[in-house]
Specification:
The protein has two domains: 2-269, Alpha-Beta Barrel (TIM Barrel), CATH 3.20.20.70; 344-402, Arc Repressor Mutant, subunit A, CATH 1.10.10. It has 16 helices and 17 strands. It has helices spanning 46-63, 84-97, 117-126, 140-145, 152-165, 183-196, 213-219, 228-244, 263-269, 296-303, 305-308, 332-343, 352-359, 363-376, 391-395, 397-402, and strands spanning 2-3, 18-24, 68-76, 99-110, 130-136, 170-176, 200-205, 248-251, 254-256, 274-277, 282-285, 288-292, 312-313, 324-329, 350-351, 380-383, 386-389. Bound molecules: iron/sulfur cluster (SF4).
Length: 409
């Protein structure tokens, strides 16, 4: 492969490092509620997939001239389903293609059933410092209904093993608003959180996604359609319990102990640049949003040796990367709207001075009418130079976020 990196005018890491998302599209089985770009029974593609991923990482390292990375996030899919050697080879490519910031956060998403002491130690040796465990529930009936492969007992063991192996930053994912989930079941799951005392907790409502088996089961009356009012009450209970345990509710769906916020996800919420590699991964760099092709097979083909031998990549940003599609340029108005939408997810909200530094105009000057309306409705509040959602506003977040699009100034 020959590289022609002349005339590049792409991302320059001004004052912040870049975040890298690495998509792993493999799952042992497909959960019936999941509409992520992940697949079961394609394990035979894993070696060629990992090779293609390495190629994409190297292309981006060249194209962006090895910028400094602040975070790496292995998500999916099920990164823990990939053998440690495979993850190691990807990390090798990352460290040889990018510059690494001191104390770079490396997160790996995992399923409880994949974790044992030796695997966990290997992750630590690779430099993975933050482990995210897809617990979802501590109730076996709920786990079965979600089509998860693990039991509550396995989730507890996985968490304990992670601590024993030496992890000092462990996050767990939980879901509420599930069919047949009662307040009592949810309350018991929250009791278990107290017992485990994790460093970080992500709590998401189940969304019934179009085209999933779960949507079909509900439509056919084979599964109960979750009650949104009950789900809202479950969210309020989670807020109350996490607050009582001393967690910081730093984003609508995320709680952490001090200093354990997800640095990677903060990049998204602060609307800062990130690069996504792998099929279907999204990126936001140099006023440009783009997405990779979704098919893992096509992804492998396009990055395969037959397609890249003797080919000169012009490296026109970003379309010439052979797996990039759906490129959208982000103008100033859109960037401001997205910054509002994402930033209001954070409990600190939007800092007006930071907004002025970035855009040369204050949020009040751009969105004064919209903000005033939500302040009167009790959904937004202005506190210490920041605009943020109120407690009530967090329940109507989507309504607030959408109102910032589009805006003409
Ligand atoms: S394990 Fe996660 S990514 Fe895989 S199918 Fe289930 S919910 Fe989707």
């Amino acid at each position: 492969m020959h590289l022609n990196t002349n005339d590049l005018n792409v991302y320059s890491p001004d004052s912040f490092p870049l975040s890298l998302y690495v998509h792993i599209p493999f799952c042992e089985t497909k959960c019936p509620y999941c509409d992520f770009n992940t697949y079961s029974r394609i394990e035979s593609m894993m070696p060629s997939y990992l090779e293609a991923l390495r190629v994409e990482i190297e292309i981006w390292g060249d194209m962006l001239r090895s910028p400094i990375l602040g975070t790496v996030f292995f998500g999916g899919g099920t990164p823990s389903y990939v053998p440690v050697e495979g993850l190691s080879s990807i990390l090798d490519s990352i460290t040889s293609s990018f510059n690494i910031s001191e104390g770079m956060e490396i997160t790996l998403e995992s399923n409880p059933g994949d974790l044992n002491e030796s695997t966990l130690r290997n992750y630590l040796n690779l430099g993975v410092g933050r482990l995210s465990i897809g617990v979802q529930s501590f109730d076996d009936q709920m786990l079965k209904l979600l089509g998860r492969r693990h039991t509550s007992e396995q989730a507890l063991q996985a968490f304990e093993l992670a601590l024993k192996a030496g992890f000092t930053n462990v996050s767990i994912d939980l879901m509420y608003g599930l069919p047949e989930q009662t307040m009592e079941i949810w309350s018991e799951t929250l009791d278990t959180v107290k017992q485990l005392d994790p460093h970080h907790i992500s709590i998401y409502a189940l969304t019934i996604e179009e085209g999933t088996p779960m949507e079909n089961w509900i439509a056919l009356g084979r599964m109960i359609d979750p009650d949104p009012d009950l789900a809202a009450d479950m969210y309020l209970l989670a807020e109350e319990r996490m607050d009582a345990l001393g967690y910081c509710h730093y984003e609508i769906s995320n709680w952490s102990k001090p200093e354990f916020q997800s640095k990677h996800n903060l990049t998204y919420w602060k609307n800062l640049p990130y690069l996504g590699v792998g099929p279907g991964a999204h990126s936001y760099i140099s006023d440009c949003r783009f997405q990779n092709i979704k098919s893992p097979r096509e992804y492998i083909t396009r990055l395969g040796s037959e397609n890249r031998e003797n080919k000169v990549f012009s490296y026109e940003f970003p379309e010439s990367v052979p797996v990039v599609e759906k490129v959208e340029s982000v103008n100033n108005n859109l960037e401001m709207a997205e910054t509002m939408m994402m930033g209001l997810r954070l409990s600190d909200g939007i800092n007006s001075d930071n907004f002025v530094d970035r855009f040369g105009i204050s949020p009040d000057n751009v969105y004064g009418k919209i903000i005033d309306g939500f302040v009167s409705d009790g959904l937004l509040e202005a506190v210490s130079g920041c605009i943020r959602l109120t407690d009530k506003g967090r329940l109507f977040g989507n309504e607030v976020f959408s109102s910032f699009f589009p805006v003409k100034i």
